[in-house]
Design a protein that fits this description.
By secondary structure, the protein is of the alpha/beta class. The chain contains 13 helices and twelve strands.
């Protein structure tokens, strides 16, 4: 291992949960659960590869949180009841066998759901049709339907879904919880100006639009206690609006990251297409740098476009404590071990995500 990669292999912790290095696997939807949302042996083998390959932390794909409107994709895993929760136990055990920590990412798809066994309709903050087209590699087709604006009761149910699912995740053995507030899903819809046109306490200026993410965080924290890491993933771009930028620029960053810091988030997981690039046109600071400025004492995970150790070092120098890999981890499930051994890393092959982005047999034998 060369001296300039040493910092990637220093130990750290998140809210007292120790991590052996600064390299994590980012959440990636792989639609490989059973039809009823239960985790599978294939998933256990898939996640174990990353732990065996030396990653200090693995974050699950988005796990849906209720049997109403949360599910986003057919064959997405859920954690809505005890049966689904305990199906995760062999997956967690497989990751833990190699000394890697495992966090459950909890997700509500909201208006961009394109496959829900429980409902045919969708809901969101407002009756605004989502931009873009459904993703074919997640079995979607055509435009997103028009969602109904959520009622107070439906919002309360969604918040409770996150809290109850967090408790179930702990019962399955997970080490921490990540609240999915990014990429265009429900919490991000409430944060987004054009998707959230509400004039009640859930809408308004950017600070007011953070009400849902804060409510979810507080409900989860109350349910799991102070000792459990509870973080939040945040982005500008969305799966259905890839190039979206916060209209308020730095002021929006201050409102969002400041709110999470004030709420007591154990970490913030920032994701961008290229996480080292300036967050806004004409600016210099990346979203990581802005998160560090406005949440100075909160551990930061950074994800987006990092393919090698040098770029990971650069992102850490900008303020990240941990670097999460997505495509690079798919191409190199043993990325940390390769870096330690000063071996070359493989390039990502997009074919792995087609025609459906499920886990392929070839991935389990690599």
């Amino acid at each position: 291992m060369s001296a300039n990669t040493d910092s990637l292999f220093t130990a750290t912790d998140i809210n007292g949960v120790s991590l052996r290095n600064r390299l994590a696997v980012a959440p990636m939807t792989r639609v490989s659960a059973d039809e009823d949302g239960t985790a599978t042996e294939t998933m256990a083998r898939y996640y174990e590869r990353f732990a065996r390959g030396g990653f200090g932390l693995v974050v699950t794909e988005g796990i849906y949180t209720d049997k109403a409107f949360a599910q986003g994709y057919f064959h997405q895993p859920g954690i809505t009841d005890e049966g689904q929760a305990q199906a995760w136990r062999p997956v967690v055990d497989a990751v833990h066998r190699h000394g890697t920590r495992f966090f459950a990412q909890l997700m509500h798809a909201g208006a961009i759901s394109q496959g829900n066994r429980s409902r045919d309709a969708t809901v969101g903050p407002s009756a605004v049709q989502p931009k873009g087209q459904q993703m074919e590699f997640y079995r979607g087709k055509g435009a997103y339907p028009m969602p109904a604006a959520m009622t107070e009761e439906q919002i309360a149910d969604a918040v409770e879904g996150f809290a109850a699912s967090a408790a179930r995740a702990l019962s399955a053995g997970f080490d921490g919880i990540e609240i999915h507030g990014a990429n265009g899903y429900l919490i991000d819809q409430f944060l987004t100006d054009y998707a959230n046109r509400r004039d009640d306490r859930w809408g308004g200026d950017t600070r007011r639009r953070t009400t849902l993410v804060r409510s979810v965080f507080e409900a989860v924290r109350a349910r799991v206690g102070a000792a459990v890491p509870v973080g939040v993933r945040i982005s500008q771009g969305k799966v259905n609006d890839f190039t979206h930028k916060w209209a308020g620029g730095d002021q929006d960053a201050e409102a969002i990251f400041g709110t999470l810091a004030e709420a007591g988030a154990s970490y913030i997981h920032v994701t961008e297409h290229k996480v080292w690039e300036p967050a806004f046109d004409g600016g210099r600071d990346s979203l990581v740098a802005l998160a560090r400025r406005y949440a100075p004492h909160v551990p930061l995970i950074a994800n987006g476009g990092v393919q090698d150790a040098a770029r990971a070092q650069e992102v850490m120098a900008a303020g990240a404590d941990i670097v999460a890999l997505g495509k690079a981890a798919l191409a190199n499930p043993d990325f940390p071990n390769r870096i330690r051994a000063e071996q070359e890393v493989s390039a990502f092959d997009p074919a792995i995500l087609g025609p459906i982005a499920n886990i392929k047999p070839s991935e389990l034998t690599a």
